[in-house]
Give the backbone structure.
Amino acid sequence: MPVTERLYYSDSHLIEFEARVVDLTDRVSGWTAVVLDRTAFYPTGGGQPSDMGTLNGARVVECIDDGDNGVLHVVQGATPARGATVHGRVDWSRRLDHMQQHTGQHILSQAFVTLFNAPTRSFRVLDASCQIDIELNNPTTEIIERAVELANNVIWEDRAITILNVTPDQAAELPLRKESTREGELRLIEIEGFDLTPCGGTHAYRTGEVGMIAVRSWERAKGLTRIEFVAGVRALADYRKANKSAREVAALFSTGRDDAPQYAAQMVEEHKEQNRRIRALEEIAAGAEAEKLLATASNGIITQIFDGRDAESLKKLAHALISNPSTIALLASRDKDTARLVFARSADASGDMNALMREACSLLDGRGGGKPDLAQGGGKNIDKIDDALTHALTLLNRDS
Ligand SMILES: [Zn+2]
């Protein structure tokens, strides 16, 4: 005879009950686990999280199924004495949420079997959504939405849900959606004219109580199709969230919610086009800047330190400079907290830019390198940027 009579097996809507304390154990957490002779609290199992609530006003934070040893109620607060009678109360909003997700899963799983012969391999209730892994090959959003449509029709037909307790022999004669791994008497959940499956969880009285089912996303995972869905109160919460996001995006475009994707796509295209134009203008600007700098060249060498230019910008300018014959460009930039260097020479000029870059970067506590005609680098020792450039220029003049 099991220690705890499980009241939730016969009535999923029972949330208040009286019971007697049969055992107490201290948990590592410092809290106490209370075992009762009967309980309406559902313990974690079968993909469904534990109920929460109160025992004589003390908070029940989790319930654990300890098999024949009963259901452990982990209590935070004043612990009742052994032998005492306690008043239990299950949080109804949490129970309703879990029943909607769990019953919704039975309906959705059967919809995939009915339409595509695709059985469910696992199920879990997460914080804000649920997951099922199904044997559905070549999934598409259209295929998945057909199952969602069937599931919602079954919900809105408000079919009766009944609990059947049968022997293994009786169960063997029935068209169960999945085999049970339990021994002895089996608890079956029947959704009128639609689904029959062994299960120990809490379910709605009728399918209408599930409200609705919506799929958030799906992906292929480990050879199966993983579907993330929401039912009942979670579907409404998810709709509110999705609607808020969509409306916020639409407001950025001063348009209606449903027109936002079109405006966003248009803006992405414009952005790409603008980038192309900016790159073209940068080429022109670098050419004009190069002409000015060439006027300052001594022996065909240009040295210049800029503020706030990135490596790409320095390289563009260097390319514009060395398109002129017999030209060497030693360029530097203080780019936020980093010193950046780009050294380049035209094909007919002499000097090893790679070697110069390595020497210069050692002064910056940084790294750099490249080819004999073009090298780049940098370092964090930004105060030495003048020294690094002077050093490179000295080496260049000495070697030439
Ligand atoms: Zn179930």
